[in-house]
């Protein structure tokens, strides 16, 4: 009987919950015109604080805010890999970029793996991306280079939509750095 009495309160609380918003990262630049070198992107690894569906914002110092109502639409590792692959293809002028996992290494000339160490908005209105990346020649899996890259980007506005857009621009800048190694 108590359960039935509490049921309307539970429905009322659920209806008052803050609505959820979902965000994706997007590539930049014109699409490539055709074939070209074959590149695989992945795997992508995330810092532990990013391995969640929620967007993360640094409020100050060492304090992070994990948003309950603002989330990534889908898997963040996959979204980063897809956007990086598209950005690389556009910078290298190739439509032959694949996302990990792919069928066979023999289909590819290079593999780019990413380690995303930081990726969040900051209280000063900027977004931050800190990543390490490695390029391997395939199919012999010989490492060609291993580098770190860090950048910040003005969010051009408040809110999580501006933060996701700034992170997209940062991934485009990272792809430009990686593409310079592959050219």
Task: Describe the structure in your own words.
The chain has helices at residues 2-16, 76-92, 160-182; strands spanning 21-23, 39-46, 54-60, 63-72, 97-99, 110-122, 126-137, 142-154. With 183 residues, the chain is of the alpha/beta class. The protein has one domain (39-182): ABC-type transport auxiliary lipoprotein component (Rossmann fold, 3-Layer(aba) Sandwich). Strands 1, 2, 3, 4, 5, 6, 7 and 8 form an 8-stranded mixed sheet that branches. A hairpin with a 2-residue loop joins β3 and β4 (63-72). It starts with a helix and ends with a helix.
Q: Mind telling me which CATH architecture this is?
A: 3-Layer(aba) Sandwich
CATH homology group: ABC-type transport auxiliary lipoprotein component
**How far is the N terminus from the C terminus?**
71 Å
The helix fraction, in percent, is 25-40%
Number of domains: 1
The oligomeric state of the chains shown is single chain
Taken in chain order, the helices and strands follow as HEEEEHEEEEH
| Tally of individual helices | 3
- Shape summary: elongated
Report the β-strand fraction as a percent range.
35-45%
CATH topology: Rossmann fold
Assign the structural class, choosing from mainly alpha, mainly beta, alpha/beta, alpha+beta, or little secondary structure. Answer: alpha/beta
Gyration radius (Cα, Å) is 20 Å
Structural key phrases:
183 residues, alpha/beta, Rossmann fold, 8-stranded mixed sheet, 8 strands, 30% helix, elongated
